[in-house]
Recover the amino acids of this structure.
């Protein structure tokens, strides 16, 4: 898929030869932020409703190397909303210095039902690359009060 010149060069090591046949690596559309991740399973896997999260191999490893970048693993929107397939860890963070196999923590959030079946090659998550900012911290004795103050969760209202 052609597009703008990338800001980041990442080495990609395919660990599962089926990925190439499944079309990996690819984005679902020219404007998609997330790279589709496939379930590299040998047989269908049923995730029980509210059962334990299961680690599913993504079938590849990568080397980001640049500490100004990381990758984030997110659920696919439709599968999460419509089918209940979400990540057991919320969001996965792939640090620039991690070069091991990528795993997808899959969880069926549905309260009941027959279970969610994940098949070999199913696109079950997405990988988004983003920049990292590391602030310079200054330890202080007090903070200057803001208009919001220390109101906390919901303190700005609903509307």
């Amino acid at each position: 898929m052609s597009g703008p010149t990338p800001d980041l060069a990442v080495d990609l090591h395919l660990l599962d030869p089926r990925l190439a046949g499944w079309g990996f690596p690819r984005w679902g559309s020219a404007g998609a932020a997330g790279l589709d991740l496939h379930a590299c399973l040998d047989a269908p896997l049923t995730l029980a409703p509210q059962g334990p999260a299961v680690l599913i191999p993504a079938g590849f490893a990568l080397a980001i190397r640049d500490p100004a970048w990381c990758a984030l693993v997110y659920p696919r929107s439709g599968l999460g909303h419509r089918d209940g397939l979400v990540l057991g860890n919320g969001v996965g963070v792939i640090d620039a210095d991690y070069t091991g196999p990528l795993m997808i923590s899959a969880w069926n959030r549905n309260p009941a039902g027959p279970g969610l079946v994940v098949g070999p090659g199913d696109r079950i998550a997405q990988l988004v690359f983003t920049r990292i900012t590391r602030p310079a911290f200054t330890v202080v004795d007090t903070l200057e009060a803001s208009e919001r103050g220390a109101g906390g969760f919901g303190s700005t209202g609903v509307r």
The mean pLDDT is 92. The beta strands are 11-14, 35-38, 45-47, 54-63, 69-75, 85-87, 92-94, 101-108, 116-118, 123-131. DSSP finds two helices and ten strands in the chain. The first helix runs from residue 18 to 21.
